[in-house]
Amino acid sequence: MEADRTTVEDAGGPVKQAGASGPRLRRLLTAWLFMVPLLVINVLVILGPSVATIYYSLTDWAGIGPAEFVGLQNYRDLLADTDFWMAMWHNVIWTILFLTVPIFIGLLGAFLLSQIKRFQMFFRIAYFVPYVVASVVNAAIWKNILDPERGIGSALASIGIPFLKGVSFFGSERLALPSIAFVNIWVWWGFILLLFLSALQSVDHELYEAARIDGAGRWQQFWNVTLPGIRPTFVFVVLLSIINSLLVFDYVYIITRGGPAGASEVVGTLMWKEAFERFEAGYAAAMGLALSFVSGLIVLIFIILRRRGWEV
Amino acid sequence: MSIFSGGRQRREPSKIPYYVILVLLALFALGPLVIVVFNSLKSSAEIGRNPLGLPLSPVFENFPAAWTQGDFSTTMVNSTILTVGTVVGVCIIAGTSAYAMARLDLPGTDAVLLYLFVASAVPFQLFLVPLFFLWSILHLTNSRFGLIVIYWAIFSPLATLLLRSYLVGLPRDFEDAARIDGANELQVMLRVVLPLSWPGLLTVALVTGVYAWNEFFFAITFIQDKNLKPVTTSFLAFQSTYSQNWGLTSAAAIYIILPIVVLFLFLQRRFISGLTAGGLKG
Question: pLDDT by residue (tens digit) across A197-218?
Fold first, then answer.
């Protein structure tokens, strides 16, 4: 950012010196002209409909035709909606899983990877591949591997380890949500790992040298040098994990559509069903706004903490 | 010997345990994808006997069957149109706006940057419902162009931020020289800055292309017409129809994966070499 400012000012210099307001004005207009495509598309798709959501969340609306203004009724319904709170709870469970498993694997893997030289590029690409594969394909792969009859359970049973035999990972109310989360974590950890790795590689080597001279062991080095060095990335990953967990849709919709019996329903899928299957668009708008409000609040908390000198 | 090696050897312990864990992680990442390749080469009979292992008598019959039954001649075209349309559009939209901010001293750049940060983080749930209504009125649902416009909007904020920071790092001497020679801003952008910024554009194209090819949420919401569906949402329907025929669905999965994995590996290399050899001495 610092560097940006100086270049912008440097460039402003000669123009200001020229003094003539004609060329300056033309330059200013040219600059905004170049912004037009981005702004038009953004207002049309994101800003306009986002503002409209506030209005529609106050209406009883089927998604087509006129919307009837009902005040805060949708929000009252939302507070009393057990399906909504159950879905929200599932988002919380999902968040907890995403804040632990992938971050642990990512940190461990990134640390090990930063210590080796040979095949580092191979490992990086290998870990990243699931992230670039379409969600429908990843879901299909794991549906097959975790199939109760022909999947990993029966394969293990055939070599004498029967405890997973016949277990229906996506079909049981108890296992559906963590199983879907597992699939999504399998996609996600490699991406996290690479974020951590690039942070690790930018930690000053002399700090490690100094710590070693002071007699710090490996664990102490990790705790006192590595972790503080990658804190901005770490905090970013935590924020990203929370937000993505709140907004999750793809894997739940693809694998179970929220079933069985709502056991894996999250707010993202519930809202989608309200809008496009039950045609309660006004109610869905309220739900979407509530969800966005929560995720906005979390981002805001992170920004405030950062302003307070948290150095994140 | 012991005097020499004492300190040093201690500090460089064996890396074998590291490699063991790293290889296990690689198997975890790639194993499931390898199983898809295996299964695509098995007949139905062999899948029944051997659902997860190596194909013992490989057959290729699944590939032509999946191509016709999965209607890939239609959906591949749809996905290609969606991806190319999105990539080209995002590069133009993000390119011009990043250029305005990095080079034309756009007044209010800070405000625009803040807006872009917010816009790139806005949850889809916030604008989905009214957007669907608006798109229905404009007859942009069940339309590839309608979906492309949405992709332009959701991918361009991040692309703009990426390109802007790339452009800010480029030297300005050539541009000033061109302006002195009487070139207008459009000429400066196209003739001077564009040739220098292709590594940045390539990153944006790679990221946007992968996202657009794999995109699911808007595709399932905005396109119901079977003839307009991209490979992703069409595969979902295909997979639920043929859920027991793993050979067939695995072959279909390969069709979806292959272009993106090849593109990814290919562009990864070009991108890295572009960055290192691009002569961007600054």
Answer: 888 888 888 888 888 888 888 7
Distance of CA A209 to the CA centre of its chain: 36
Which ipTM score applies to this complex? 0.86
| Candidates A117, A136, A152, partner chain B, best to mutate (most B CBs within 10 A) | A136
SS3 A96: helix
> How far is it, in rounded angstroms, from Cα B228 to Cα B78?
6
The H-or-E segment that residue B219 falls in is helix B217-222
Scan residues 272-301 of A and list those with Cβ closer than 8 Å to B. 272, 275-276, 281, 284-285, 287-289, 291-292, 295, 299
Rounded CA-CA distance B258/B246 in Å is 18
A283 vs A74: CA distance, rounded Å: 5
Tell me the C-alpha distance between A257 and A272, whole Å: 10
Residue B235, Cβ density class (10 Å: 0-12 exposed, 13-18 middle, ≥19 buried): buried
- Give the other-Cβ count within 10 Å of B262's Cβ: 10
0.90 surpassed by pTM: no
Amino acid at A138: N
Q: CA of B165: which chain A residue's CA is closest?
A: A4
Could you report the per-residue pLDDT of A110-164, keeping only the tens digit for each? 989 988 888 988 898 888 889 889 999 999 999 999 988 888 888 888 887 888 8
What's the DSSP call for residue A308? I
Which among B146, B218, B121, B127 has a CA at the least distance from the CA of A284? B127
